[in-house]
Amino acid sequence: MSETTGKKKVSLTMWIFGALVLGVIVGLLMQGNAEIAENYIKPFGTIFLNLIKMVVVPVVLLSIMQGIISLQDVRKVGSIGVKTIVFYLCTTAFAVTLGLIFANLLNVGAGFNLGTEELVYEAAEAPSFMDTLVNIFPSNAIQPLASATMLQVIVIALFFGFGIIVAGEKGKIAKDVVDSFSEVSFKVMGMIIKLSPIGVFALITPVVAANGPSVLLPLLKVIGVAYLVYIIHMVVVYSTSVKGISGMSPLKFFKGMSPAMIFAFSSASSVGALPFNLECTQKLGAKKEVASFVLPLGATINMDGTAIYQGVCAIFIAQIFGFNLTIPQQLTIILTATLASIGTAGVPGSGMIMLAMVLESVGLPLEGIALVAGIDRILDMGRTCVNITGDAACTICVDAMEKKKEARRGR
Ligand code: ASP
C-alpha cells in the first residue's frame, strides 16, 4: 500500500457510505415489493459474502504461517505468543464486562416489551469448557480449511509454521511458497473489498424493504449504548496500555491508526483491514516480525468490539423479552462472549452469528437476533473498528516489551 492509496481509501469509504444511504432509500421505496428485493437484489449481497468467506481461510492460514516463519525462532514465537494471548484475553473479558455494566445501567431494552406469552424457551446447555478445548485441535488437516473452522485453522497454521522453522534449509521451498501465496491472497482480498459498495447496497436494501424504518428506529438506543461503550473501551483501555507499556502518546497512536480504523469501519471486516493494520502499526514503529504474527492472530481471535456488542445485545434481548438475568448468568455471558468472540471470524456479520452461542448459554430467545439483525451492519462497523484497534494496541505493547527485553539482553 503506497501513499497514493490514501486517496483511494477515502473514496472507497465514500462509495460504501453512499451505497449504504442509497440502499436505505431504495429499500424504503421498495417497501411494498420486499419480495423483489429479496429475490433479485439480496443474491448480489450473498455473492459478496461468499467471496469474503472464500478468501478468509487462505488469508488467515498463510498470514499466521508467514508471521511465525518471520520470527525464525520457536522460543521467540512462544514469548510473543504468550504476551499476545494474555493481552487479548484480558482486554476482551474487560470489554464484555463494560458492555454489560453500561447496558444494565442505561437500561438498553427499557421501553419496549415484546412479552413472552407466546414464546416458550428452554434453557439451552452451554458447550462444556473441555469440549470447547478439545474442539480447537483438528483431527484432520484439510477438513477445517474446507469448513472454515477458524480456531482449527489457526492451530494448523501454528504447527506447520513451526514445522517450517524447524525444518531449516529443507523448509526453504515451503517458506517461499507461503510468502508468495500469502501475498496473492491479500491481493485477492483487496479485489473483493473493492466490491463492497455493491455488497453493502445489496445487503441493506432487502432488510429495509422488508422491515421498513419502524424496525430501525427503536433500535437507536442499542446503537447509542454500543457506540458509547466502544468509544470508552478504546479511549480507556487502548490509550492506557499503549501509553503505560510503550510510552507512546495515545494521540499519536489513534492518529497513526486512523486509515486502518476508517477502513475497518467501512468494510466491517477485520481480515480485510489486516493489510492496512500491518502498515499502520509498522509506521508507528512496530517491527514487521511482531506485527505479522500478532495482527493476523488478532484479526482472527481478538474481538473486543464484538464482545461489547454481544454483552449489550444480550441485555437488550433479555430486557425486551422480560427476562431478569442473575449475576451468575451475567458471569456466564462474560465467559461465553469471550469464547464466542474468539470464534468469530473477521468478516462482516459473523459476530451476530456467534451471538446465538451467548444467548443460548443463558437460555435467552434466539428470536432476539432477528431484532438486532436489521441494524447489524451499523453495529458491525463500530465493533470491527474496535476489534482491529485492539489488535494494533497489542502489537505496539508486545513490540515495546520485546524491544525492552532485547535491550536488557544487550546490556
Ligand atoms: N465484522 C467483525 C470483524 O470483522 C466481526 C463481527 O461480526 O463481530 O471484526
- Number of distinct beta strands: 0
Shape: globular
* Rg for CA atoms: 21 Å
Question: Order of helices and strands, N to C?
Answer: HHHHHHHHHHHHHHHHH
Strand content: under 5%
Structure description:
The chain has 17 helices and no strands. With 411 residues, the chain is mainly α. Helix 3 crosses helix 14 (327-343) and helix 12 (288-301) runs antiparallel to helix 17. Mean pLDDT is 84; it is low at 1-8 and 115-124. The structure holds aspartic acid.
Mind sketching the topology for me?
Layout lengths: L4 H25 L4 H38 L2 H32 L23 H8 L6 H5 L2 H18 L4 H23 L1 H21 L3 H27 L3 H18 L2 H14 L4 H14 L2 H17 L6 H17 L6 H12 L5 H7 L2 H35 L1
Helix pairs in contact: 1-8, 1-10, 2-6, 2-7, 2-8, 2-12, 3-9, 3-12, 3-13, 3-14, 3-17, 9-13, 9-17, 10-11, 10-17, 11-12, 11-17, 12-17, 13-14, 13-15, 13-17, 14-15
This protein binds aspartic acid (ASP).
Pick out its properties.
411 residues; mainly alpha; 17 helices; globular; binds aspartic acid
Give a brief rundown of this model.
The chain is mainly α and 411 residues long. It is built from 17 helices and no strands.
